[in-house]
Amino acid sequence: FASGLIALTTQTNPEEGGGSLGLPVVEIGHPLDPENSYYVDNDNVQAGYVATRHLLARGHRRILFLGYDKRFFMMENRLKGFRQAMAEFGAPVDEDWIVPARMIENTPDFTHLGEIFQRAERPTAVVSMDDPLSIGLSGFLNTLSLTVPGDVSIVSFNNTQVGQYHTPALTSIDVNPRELGMRA
Hints:
It is a single chain. By secondary structure, the protein is of the alpha/beta class. α1 runs parallel beside α2 (73-88). It starts with a strand and ends with a helix. It has helices at 44-57, 73-88, 110-117, 131-143, 161-165, 177-183, and strands spanning 5-8, 25-28, 38-40, 63-68, 98-100, 125-128, 153-157, 171-173. Helix content is 34%, strand content 17%.
């Protein structure tokens, strides 16, 4: 018999599931109602800021934000951190370069990305929301005769083994899923 429920934050209130069973619920991620929820989460504004600042500190000013999915607070917060870092460095944000992709599916509009990366004033760097998305982007850029990191630098999230062993290895923010699970 379960004595509690740990749920990944969703678009609906998990209390409706666990709470109706009389179970305490802890969410991993930013809940819909943080004032009335128990949850653990990363500071995703800071994570987006750190990822972007890493690229800005290396001289990049034309940075694309890849993998935006407005259904998730995490993405909204990472985008907020991205915007803060860009503003701090006086770098313009091209709204056309906030490229969506459905979380988990990791399928951006490659036609749109191709148009962006074939422009004379193309991005020189990307803040990407997930390692598999970054690996896919790396392969796609290769089809455009662009190299990573020679032509385009990428900072990713999740610090997966796949990303660590990718060639070249990804620069990736570790979101500490094991620690979040332990804390929950």
